[in-house]
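re: that chain from earlier
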Amino acid sequence: MNEAHILRIAGELKVQPRQVTATARLFAEGATVPFIARYRKEATGSLDEVAVTGIRERLLSLAELDQRRDSILKSLAERNLLTDELKSSIAQSETLTALEDIYQPYRPKRRTRATIAREQGLEPLADLLFNQQSVADPEAEARAYVSAEKGVADVAGALAGARDILAERISDDAQARTSLRALFWSRGVVKSKVAFGKEEEAAKFKDYLDWSEPLARIPSHRMLAIRRGETEGLLMMRIQPPEEEALGLIEPLFVTGRGPAAEQVRLAVQDSYKRLLGQAIEVEMRIESKKRADVEAIRVFAENLRELLLSSPLGRKNVLAIDPGFRTGCKIVCLDRQGKLLHNDVIYPTASSAGEAREAGEALRGMVARFQVEAIAIGNGTASRETEMFVKALKLPPSIPVVMVNESGASIYSASDVAREEFPNHDLTVRGSVSIGRRLMDPLAELVKLDPKSIGVGQYQHDVDPFALKRSLDDVVMSCVNGVGVELNTASKQLLAYVSGLGPALAENIVSYRNENGPFKSRAELKSVPRLGPKAFEQAAGFLRIRDGGQPLDASAVHPESYPIVDEMARDMACSVGDLMRDAGRRQKIPLAKYVTETVGLPTLTDIMAELAKPGRDPRRQFEVFAFQAGVEKMEDLKPGMKLPGIVTNVTAFGAFVDIGVHQDGLVHVSQLSDRFIKDPAEVVKVQQKVMVTLTEVDLPRKRIALSMKAAPTIGPGAAAKTSPAPGRTRPPGPPAKPKAPDWFTEALMRGRQGPS
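^ sequence. v structure.
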């Protein structure tokens, strides 16, 4: 374990070195983030998942730095270039950028103009010019290097070759690169223009056809939009600071005298910046700005995904689920309380024939009675509001809620290998309907079967680093799954795969064992599952639940390793563990300090007491039935000034999309989310949050809806343009402002809304 890394991480994350050491040791032993945060609080000093994840990420990045350092040292040693001074500089480098800057002069290069000049024997002349003070007449010095045999035709050619060598040295200089890098970040400007001959095709990028914005202020979504246009061959992008400032910054580093020699060096500096150094740093800026944009986009996606996964579950109910449709009818499935498919059918409630509509009503009533339906789920796609009206008109018992369910991704699930394995004898429509019903019962259990990118709560998720995105989203899913807990005897293998310490292979083994041997009777029985060893059991057991088993603690988040403590408490209170869980009075009399040991402290004991009070408590919010505004079912029903209930479907850096029940999400621009200034829309709204919005503008031809959550929003055409500017859109003194920032409609269009980008 690298002590320097431990101290560095502790300083960066503002935690104690012992906490970092303990966490690093647990990771080395194969522990997961949820397990460390939940069951090793004494070791880590009660670090939460955010802190534990932060330590993991820094450990990985520092390990990557060490690996690159070793690679560079090996390369230099093999080429006999490694000196003690160079080795010391490399050892002291604290970032990859600093390390690469040191290595830059020694990096193997292709044959360059400087390489050719060295082959012509011009390096001594370059050294003389660079000295500046000792050369009174560069041309006189250069005559000695004119050689037809070496390809130096004249004095001008000799001086040009010497300047080529100096230009490469300047480009490789660590101080010059560091200074110019800082200038790019502080004064660099992102510029985009339409690609030649692509004016018509680039219409969807119209706001970026002649765009200019400071690099330091460009928001993530705008950077990703411009880069998407560039990737599609429709835009050209550059990142540059003012040239005079760049030259003014680096010239003094190399031009140290006056006279003809200094002028040669100045020319070399200018050539180096325009031909080598400026372009090299611009490439770095493109890479780093993309990384920064990715980080923000991934953060937004991860936060939205967490809120969606932790949506309120209806719970175990008999559900009738409907995938609405006009021409093809409504696909109906009936599910039992465990989500098992009992029946499927097709009805035509929106048929033009009154007889068909009447038959559809009778069929639906019959299914409600036959399968003792306790709730009805309707997908929010085509014909959803019409189907909702039809169902409500049947006057079913008021105890049966009719709930609109976001069906984003259901079609992808229905065509997936997971769905085909679950329902090999049913078609896509049945599988999609089942997904809608199960999503109402338990959103988390159903959504884990989907690739998170297909759920539709991201922002430019197809443009960011796929590996970084997957890592972040997997962390979120694992955090949610383990935070809620998993029913061992009913969970799918997809859900089990996210349980701490398991993974797809062990999850499949658990399901196979369950199918062959019947429901698990205790957590201890997990040890009989093939290939599930002690380490996997330790990591997973606390997050798995067994209801109505022989051991009451198996239904709680109390880890089996702590069962002896609870048994001791029960003995001391002269009762059973079950009595202890049922009787708050007995629990209040337990002196926790008595049970503290070297490995178990008050944090764990406090968690145990909380679990005894509410064993296996679901942390998700209680389910509430939501209904859209009656009579508002399509865009033609909308009028500016309407106040409408809605559900937030996505939160982005520029605002929030809200479903108001008209088959087209509206956008609440960031400037319309609150009467106070906000920087991050997530400060105000979350995915799946129920909100009340005011309709400020509707554009039927382009299917665009503008909404506001302000107390007194501006209503009518141009409303969005009259609002206060969004964060990051105020331009500092410096580069002249070109076009205004894209309006919210364009932002939405760039995302490809409706539907995830």
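The mean pLDDT is 89.
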